């Protein structure tokens, strides 16, 4: 019966860690220390029966010394949980530093355990398990492993060297080593889970940075291109048609304000792009660049409206900026959008960051972005699954 109680006691600290990890017990260092010490001391109650029997047999010297040894043992266990608790706020996955006082506490526990075995016999053979448990939960992995192995060997050899102390099942001796292995596996699992969480957080940050970079590039690239074209047009019109020049400069101001608002919305994650809105913008921008345009009169209902809007924005920006085209045609279906111009071809446009970001957008939606060039211009086509 005593051995079984000791086995239950050996898992008290493990139970404590599970409770803390599950969030049912607060992780405050002081509270956790008191709780762990209290639970571990409770499982020493299996030693009370033999001591009471010694008092009843009127064996006062044995009973007195055994009582003192048990109280000292309980005090060392309880004190270890209080003194060596983690109060620095660091992660439990970080190994605690070596504290020289821990070796003194373990030595004192070993003396108490040996005294109890000498006084009470085989019933006290399970007490060294507590030495291993204290080391496992309050020392770094390597040092606690040494202690656990030493305790296991001692529990195996004592019954061999002192047959009078035999009677405990041999497999009980392996409890400290098994607890050490189980705790290390648990800590490794927690470390892997923590590493996974950190990597996921870093990936989310990188993805958000890429999103902001793509949106800012697409917004500013398109808006600044149109602003440049309209400014050049206004300069040419100042001496010819002052009214229209003023209208073009008013458009420049409006586009600049829209670009600023778009950047703010993008940084805040609120930027919305629609195909209909981008078609209207494309009509104005291409007209300002003196490019004849063929745009769809009606836009089909599609769940990819935002994606197609980004594709149209980037394609039109490249047409105005790089193509020197005279004509541009846009075709939209429920699953695709195509922009064709009659300019001078891709050149160095294909390697630009805008098209790279566009590929990422289309790929994220499960689609493909195709660019083809010929002597007659560039064809940009984005297609998504139905």
Question: How do the helices and strands line up, and which of them pair or pack?
Answer:
Layout: H1 2-10, H2 12-22, H3 29-42, H4 48-56, H5 60-83, H6 100-120, H7 128-138, H8 141-161, H9 175-237, H10 242-267, H11 275-288, E1 292-294, H12 305-323, E2 327-332, E3 336-341, H13 353-364, E4 368-374, E5 377-383
Parallel strand pairs: 1-2
Antiparallel strand pairs: 2-3, 3-5, 4-5
Helix pairs in contact: 2-3, 3-5, 4-5, 5-6, 6-7, 7-8, 7-9, 8-9, 9-10, 9-12, 9-13, 11-12, 12-13
Helical content (DSSP H or I, runs of 4+): 55-70%
Number of helix segments? 13
Shape: rod-shaped
Radius of gyration: 39 Å
Structural class: alpha+beta
> What quaternary form is this?
single chain
% residues in beta strands: 5-15%
Question: CATH class of the largest domain, anyone?
Answer: Alpha Beta
Mean pLDDT: 77
Return the string of H and E elements: HHHHHHHHHHHEHEEHEE
Distance between the termini: 70 Å
- Overall tally of domains: 2
Biggest β-sheet: strands ordered side by side in the sheet:
1-2-3-5-4
In CATH, the topology of the largest domain is named Heat Shock Protein 90
**What CATH architecture of the largest domain do you see?**
2-Layer Sandwich
Largest sheet: 5 strands, mixed
CATH superfamily of the largest domain: Histidine kinase-like ATPase, C-terminal domain
List low-pLDDT spans: 1-29
Q: State the total count of DSSP E strands.
A: 5
């Amino acid at each position: 019966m005593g051995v079984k109680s000791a086995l239950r006691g050996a898992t008290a600290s493990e139970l404590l860690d599970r409770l803390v990890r599950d969030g049912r017990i607060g992780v405050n260092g002081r509270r956790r220390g008191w709780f762990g010490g209290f639970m571990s001391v409770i499982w020493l109650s299996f030693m009370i029966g033999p001591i009471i029997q010694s008092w009843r047999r009127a064996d006062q010297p044995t009973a007195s010394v055994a009582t003192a040894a048990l109280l000292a043992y309980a005090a060392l266990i309880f004190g270890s949980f209080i003194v060596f608790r983690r109060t620095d706020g660091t992660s439990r996955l970080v190994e605690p530093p070596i504290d020289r006082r821990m070796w003194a506490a373990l030595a004192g526990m070993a003396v108490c355990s040996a005294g109890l075995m000498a006084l009470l016999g085989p019933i006290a053979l399970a007490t060294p398990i507590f030495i291993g448990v204290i080391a496992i939960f309050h020392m770094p992995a390597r040092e606690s492993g040494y202690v656990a192995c030493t305790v296991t060997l001692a529990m195996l050899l004592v019954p061999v060297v002192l047959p009078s102390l035999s009677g405990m099942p041999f497999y009980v001796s392996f409890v400290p080593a098994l607890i050490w292995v189980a705790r290390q596996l648990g800590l490794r699992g927690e470390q892997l889970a923590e590493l996974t969480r950190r990597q996921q957080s870093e990936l989310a940050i990188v993805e958000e940075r890429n999103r902001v970079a793509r949106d800012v590039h697409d917004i500013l690239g398109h808006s600044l291109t149109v602003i440049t074209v309209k400014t050049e047009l206004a300069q040419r019109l100042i001496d010819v048609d002052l009214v229209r020049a003023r209208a073009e400069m008013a458009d420049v101001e409006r586009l600049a304000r829209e670009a600023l608002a778009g950047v703010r919305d993008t940084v805040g994650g609120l930027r919305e792009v629609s195909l209909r809105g981008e078609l209207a913008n494309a009509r104005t921008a291409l007209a300002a660049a003196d490019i004849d345009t063929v745009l769809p009169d009606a836009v089909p209902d599609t769940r990819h409206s935002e994606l197609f809007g980004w594709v149209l924005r980037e394609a039109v920006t490249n047409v105005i900026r790089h193509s020197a085209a005279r004509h541009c045609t846009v075709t939209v279906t429920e699953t695709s959008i195509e922009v064709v111009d009659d300019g001078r071809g891709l050149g160095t446009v294909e390697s630009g960051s805008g098209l790279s970001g566009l590929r990422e957008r289309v790929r994220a939606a499960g689609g493909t972005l195709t660019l083809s060039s010929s002597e007659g211009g560039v064809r940009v086509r984005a297609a998504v699954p139905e």
